[in-house]
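I wish you would study the pair of lines that follows with an eye to the fold:

===
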Amino acid sequence: PPNTTTFNALIGAYSRAGRLGKVLETYRAMVGQGLERTVVTFSAAIAACERAGRWETALQLFDDMRRDGVRANVITHNSLIACCAQGGQWRRAEALVAAMERQAEGSHCQPDVVTHTSLVSAYDRGGQWTRALRVFRRCMLGAAAEKVAAKPAAAAAAAGGGGSGETEAAAAAAAASMPFKGPRHGGGRPCEPDAIMYSVLIEALWGAGMPWAQRRAARLWREAASKGLGRAAPTSSSSLPPTSVVADEAAAADAADGNGGTGASGPPLELNLQALGPGVAMTALHCWLADLAD
Protein backbone atom coordinates (compact mmCIF):
# COMPACT_ATOMS: atom_id res chain seq x y z
CA PRO A 1 0.00 0.00 0.00
CA PRO A 2 1.13 3.61 -0.52
CA ASN A 3 3.19 5.01 2.34
CA THR A 4 4.62 8.40 3.31
CA THR A 5 7.41 8.15 0.73
CA THR A 6 4.91 7.43 -2.03
CA PHE A 7 2.68 10.35 -1.10
CA ASN A 8 5.66 12.68 -0.75
CA ALA A 9 6.81 11.80 -4.25
CA LEU A 10 3.31 12.45 -5.58
CA ILE A 11 2.99 15.79 -3.78
CA GLY A 12 6.43 16.80 -5.06
CA ALA A 13 5.48 15.96 -8.65
CA TYR A 14 2.20 17.88 -8.44
CA SER A 15 3.99 20.81 -6.80
CA ARG A 16 6.58 21.05 -9.58
CA ALA A 17 3.77 20.89 -12.13
CA GLY A 18 1.99 23.79 -10.43
CA ARG A 19 -1.12 21.75 -9.62
CA LEU A 20 -1.98 23.05 -6.17
CA GLY A 21 -5.43 21.44 -6.15
CA LYS A 22 -3.93 17.96 -6.59
CA VAL A 23 -1.28 18.75 -3.97
CA LEU A 24 -3.93 19.61 -1.39
CA GLU A 25 -6.05 16.62 -2.38
CA THR A 26 -3.08 14.30 -1.88
CA TYR A 27 -2.18 15.97 1.40
CA ARG A 28 -5.72 15.51 2.72
CA ALA A 29 -5.57 11.85 1.69
CA MET A 30 -2.42 11.46 3.80
CA VAL A 31 -4.17 13.03 6.78
CA GLY A 32 -7.24 10.83 6.26
CA GLN A 33 -5.13 7.67 6.20
CA GLY A 34 -3.17 8.69 9.28
CA LEU A 35 0.16 8.68 7.47
CA GLU A 36 3.11 10.58 8.88
CA ARG A 37 3.74 13.99 7.31
CA THR A 38 7.39 15.00 7.13
CA VAL A 39 9.32 18.18 6.34
CA VAL A 40 9.42 16.96 2.73
CA THR A 41 5.61 16.79 2.66
CA PHE A 42 5.10 20.30 3.96
CA SER A 43 7.97 21.89 2.03
CA ALA A 44 6.62 20.60 -1.28
CA ALA A 45 3.06 21.64 -0.43
CA ILE A 46 4.11 25.15 0.65
CA ALA A 47 6.23 25.47 -2.50
CA ALA A 48 3.09 24.72 -4.52
CA CYS A 49 1.29 27.51 -2.64
CA GLU A 50 4.17 29.85 -3.51
CA ARG A 51 3.83 29.02 -7.21
CA ALA A 52 0.08 29.62 -7.02
CA GLY A 53 0.34 32.80 -4.94
CA ARG A 54 -1.79 31.34 -2.12
CA TRP A 55 -0.17 32.74 1.02
CA GLU A 56 -3.19 32.02 3.25
CA THR A 57 -3.09 28.32 2.34
CA ALA A 58 0.68 28.25 2.88
CA LEU A 59 0.25 29.66 6.40
CA GLN A 60 -2.44 27.08 7.15
CA LEU A 61 -0.07 24.30 6.10
CA PHE A 62 2.66 25.83 8.24
CA ASP A 63 0.29 25.78 11.23
CA ASP A 64 -0.43 22.10 10.52
CA MET A 65 3.29 21.47 10.36
CA ARG A 66 3.91 22.98 13.79
CA ARG A 67 0.88 21.20 15.23
CA ASP A 68 2.30 17.89 13.96
CA GLY A 69 5.63 18.67 15.62
CA VAL A 70 7.53 18.74 12.31
CA ARG A 71 10.51 21.10 12.34
CA ALA A 72 10.69 23.37 9.30
CA ASN A 73 13.98 23.83 7.47
CA VAL A 74 15.32 26.84 5.57
CA ILE A 75 13.66 25.66 2.31
CA THR A 76 10.26 25.54 3.99
CA HIS A 77 10.70 29.00 5.50
CA ASN A 78 11.99 30.52 2.26
CA SER A 79 8.98 29.27 0.30
CA LEU A 80 6.63 30.58 2.99
CA ILE A 81 8.33 33.99 3.15
CA ALA A 82 8.32 34.28 -0.66
CA CYS A 83 4.63 33.37 -0.64
CA CYS A 84 3.91 36.14 1.89
CA ALA A 85 5.96 38.52 -0.25
CA GLN A 86 3.76 37.79 -3.25
CA GLY A 87 0.70 38.73 -1.21
CA GLY A 88 2.30 41.93 0.11
CA GLN A 89 2.24 40.47 3.63
CA TRP A 90 5.44 42.15 4.76
CA ARG A 91 4.63 41.99 8.49
CA ARG A 92 4.13 38.23 8.29
CA ALA A 93 7.33 37.82 6.25
CA GLU A 94 9.22 39.94 8.78
CA ALA A 95 7.90 37.87 11.70
CA LEU A 96 8.93 34.63 9.95
CA VAL A 97 12.49 35.89 9.38
CA ALA A 98 12.70 37.06 13.00
CA ALA A 99 11.58 33.60 14.17
CA MET A 100 14.22 31.99 11.96
CA GLU A 101 16.94 34.22 13.41
CA ARG A 102 15.90 33.39 16.97
CA GLN A 103 16.26 29.66 16.37
CA ALA A 104 19.15 29.86 13.90
CA GLU A 105 22.00 29.24 16.33
CA GLY A 106 23.01 25.59 16.10
CA SER A 107 20.11 24.70 13.81
CA HIS A 108 19.64 23.90 10.12
CA CYS A 109 17.34 26.88 9.70
CA GLN A 110 19.68 29.83 9.36
CA PRO A 111 18.38 32.61 7.09
CA ASP A 112 20.30 32.80 3.82
CA VAL A 113 20.45 35.24 0.92
CA VAL A 114 17.18 33.83 -0.48
CA THR A 115 15.48 34.52 2.87
CA HIS A 116 16.58 38.13 2.96
CA THR A 117 15.88 38.73 -0.71
CA SER A 118 12.33 37.48 -0.21
CA LEU A 119 11.99 39.81 2.78
CA VAL A 120 13.21 42.74 0.67
CA SER A 121 10.63 41.74 -1.95
CA ALA A 122 7.90 41.70 0.70
CA TYR A 123 8.91 45.18 1.83
CA ASP A 124 8.91 46.35 -1.79
CA ARG A 125 5.37 45.10 -2.39
CA GLY A 126 4.24 46.61 0.90
CA GLY A 127 5.76 50.01 0.12
CA GLN A 128 8.30 49.65 2.94
CA TRP A 129 11.40 50.63 0.98
CA THR A 130 13.24 52.04 4.02
CA ARG A 131 12.95 48.65 5.71
CA ALA A 132 14.16 46.99 2.50
CA LEU A 133 17.22 49.22 2.50
CA ARG A 134 17.90 48.34 6.13
CA VAL A 135 18.00 44.61 5.32
CA PHE A 136 20.38 45.27 2.45
CA ARG A 137 22.68 47.33 4.68
CA ARG A 138 22.75 44.58 7.30
CA CYS A 139 23.82 42.05 4.69
CA MET A 140 26.48 44.39 3.26
CA LEU A 141 27.86 45.32 6.67
CA GLY A 142 27.86 41.69 7.78
CA ALA A 143 29.80 40.55 4.72
CA ALA A 144 32.28 43.42 5.07
CA ALA A 145 32.79 42.71 8.79
CA GLU A 146 33.50 39.05 8.06
CA LYS A 147 36.14 39.97 5.48
CA VAL A 148 37.84 42.43 7.83
CA ALA A 149 37.77 39.99 10.75
CA ALA A 150 39.18 37.20 8.61
CA LYS A 151 42.30 39.15 7.51
CA PRO A 152 44.31 39.05 10.77
CA ALA A 153 43.27 35.46 11.43
CA ALA A 154 44.29 34.39 7.94
CA ALA A 155 47.59 36.30 8.20
CA ALA A 156 48.41 34.65 11.52
CA ALA A 157 47.59 31.23 10.11
CA ALA A 158 49.75 31.89 7.06
CA ALA A 159 52.70 32.99 9.22
CA GLY A 160 52.62 29.79 11.21
CA GLY A 161 51.70 27.41 8.42
CA GLY A 162 53.81 24.92 6.55
CA GLY A 163 53.19 24.16 2.88
CA SER A 164 50.79 26.12 0.73
CA GLY A 165 48.01 23.56 1.14
CA GLU A 166 48.35 23.60 4.92
CA THR A 167 48.49 27.40 4.93
CA GLU A 168 45.28 27.75 2.92
CA ALA A 169 43.46 25.21 5.08
CA ALA A 170 44.62 26.91 8.29
CA ALA A 171 43.63 30.34 7.00
CA ALA A 172 40.18 29.09 5.99
CA ALA A 173 39.66 27.45 9.37
CA ALA A 174 40.76 30.60 11.19
CA ALA A 175 38.45 32.78 9.12
CA ALA A 176 35.51 30.43 9.67
CA SER A 177 36.05 30.57 13.45
CA MET A 178 35.75 34.36 13.65
CA PRO A 179 32.60 35.62 15.42
CA PHE A 180 29.92 37.23 13.27
CA LYS A 181 26.51 38.60 14.22
CA GLY A 182 25.02 39.52 10.84
CA PRO A 183 22.86 37.50 8.44
CA ARG A 184 24.39 34.24 7.23
CA HIS A 185 23.87 31.65 4.55
CA GLY A 186 22.72 28.22 5.68
CA GLY A 187 26.33 27.01 5.50
CA GLY A 188 27.45 29.65 7.99
CA ARG A 189 28.91 32.11 5.47
CA PRO A 190 27.94 35.79 5.63
CA CYS A 191 24.84 36.64 3.64
CA GLU A 192 26.32 38.94 0.95
CA PRO A 193 23.76 40.48 -1.45
CA ASP A 194 23.61 38.86 -4.87
CA ALA A 195 22.21 39.98 -8.25
CA ILE A 196 18.63 39.16 -7.28
CA MET A 197 18.78 41.18 -4.06
CA TYR A 198 20.23 44.16 -5.91
CA SER A 199 17.43 43.87 -8.46
CA VAL A 200 14.67 43.70 -5.86
CA LEU A 201 16.07 46.63 -3.87
CA ILE A 202 16.53 48.81 -6.95
CA GLU A 203 12.89 48.10 -7.86
CA ALA A 204 11.81 49.18 -4.38
CA LEU A 205 13.89 52.36 -4.31
CA TRP A 206 12.97 53.51 -7.82
CA GLY A 207 9.29 52.77 -7.17
CA ALA A 208 9.37 54.97 -4.05
CA GLY A 209 9.29 57.96 -6.41
CA MET A 210 11.47 60.12 -4.16
CA PRO A 211 14.54 61.82 -5.68
CA TRP A 212 16.98 60.68 -3.02
CA ALA A 213 15.70 57.08 -3.18
CA GLN A 214 16.07 57.06 -6.96
CA ARG A 215 19.59 58.47 -6.66
CA ARG A 216 20.37 55.62 -4.27
CA ALA A 217 18.91 53.17 -6.80
CA ALA A 218 21.30 54.58 -9.43
CA ARG A 219 24.27 54.14 -7.08
CA LEU A 220 23.27 50.55 -6.40
CA TRP A 221 22.92 49.91 -10.14
CA ARG A 222 26.47 51.13 -10.73
CA GLU A 223 27.74 49.20 -7.71
CA ALA A 224 26.21 46.00 -9.07
CA ALA A 225 27.81 46.70 -12.45
CA SER A 226 31.23 47.18 -10.85
CA LYS A 227 30.86 43.77 -9.16
CA GLY A 228 29.93 42.08 -12.43
CA LEU A 229 26.52 41.11 -11.10
CA GLY A 230 24.83 42.19 -14.32
CA ARG A 231 26.23 39.09 -15.98
CA ALA A 232 25.25 36.76 -13.15
CA ALA A 233 22.35 34.45 -13.83
CA PRO A 234 21.23 32.89 -10.54
CA THR A 235 17.97 30.99 -10.37
CA SER A 236 15.14 33.34 -9.47
CA SER A 237 12.11 32.55 -7.34
CA SER A 238 8.83 32.96 -9.18
CA SER A 239 7.92 35.71 -6.71
CA LEU A 240 10.89 37.90 -7.54
CA PRO A 241 11.71 40.27 -10.40
CA PRO A 242 14.06 39.20 -13.23
CA THR A 243 17.58 38.45 -12.02
CA SER A 244 19.51 40.72 -14.40
CA VAL A 245 20.54 43.91 -12.67
CA VAL A 246 22.44 45.58 -15.49
CA ALA A 247 22.94 45.12 -19.20
CA ASP A 248 26.27 43.64 -20.23
CA GLU A 249 27.09 46.66 -22.36
CA ALA A 250 26.61 49.09 -19.48
CA ALA A 251 28.55 46.87 -17.07
CA ALA A 252 31.47 46.80 -19.50
CA ALA A 253 31.33 50.58 -19.89
CA ASP A 254 31.32 51.16 -16.14
CA ALA A 255 34.25 48.78 -15.71
CA ALA A 256 36.27 50.48 -18.46
CA ASP A 257 38.01 52.93 -16.13
CA GLY A 258 37.49 50.99 -12.90
CA ASN A 259 35.54 53.71 -11.07
CA GLY A 260 32.08 53.81 -12.66
CA GLY A 261 33.04 56.14 -15.53
CA THR A 262 32.42 55.65 -19.20
CA GLY A 263 36.00 54.97 -20.29
CA ALA A 264 37.85 56.35 -23.28
CA SER A 265 35.35 55.04 -25.80
CA GLY A 266 32.34 56.54 -23.98
CA PRO A 267 29.06 54.82 -23.04
CA PRO A 268 27.50 52.22 -25.36
CA LEU A 269 25.11 53.49 -27.99
CA GLU A 270 22.63 50.69 -27.27
CA LEU A 271 21.16 49.50 -23.98
CA ASN A 272 19.31 46.20 -23.71
CA LEU A 273 16.47 46.53 -21.18
CA GLN A 274 14.53 43.45 -22.23
CA ALA A 275 15.46 41.24 -19.27
CA LEU A 276 15.02 43.92 -16.59
CA GLY A 277 12.12 44.69 -14.26
CA PRO A 278 10.48 48.11 -14.73
CA GLY A 279 12.24 49.85 -11.86
CA VAL A 280 15.64 48.42 -12.77
CA ALA A 281 15.07 49.31 -16.43
CA MET A 282 14.26 52.92 -15.55
CA THR A 283 17.34 53.11 -13.32
CA ALA A 284 19.52 51.65 -16.07
CA LEU A 285 18.11 54.09 -18.61
CA HIS A 286 18.64 57.03 -16.24
CA CYS A 287 22.30 56.10 -15.67
CA TRP A 288 22.86 55.44 -19.38
CA LEU A 289 21.46 58.86 -20.36
CA ALA A 290 23.57 60.51 -17.66
CA ASP A 291 26.66 58.85 -19.11
CA LEU A 292 25.75 60.04 -22.59
CA ALA A 293 25.35 63.59 -21.30
CA ASP A 294 28.78 63.62 -19.59
About this structure: Residues 155 and 171 are 7 Å apart (CA to CA).
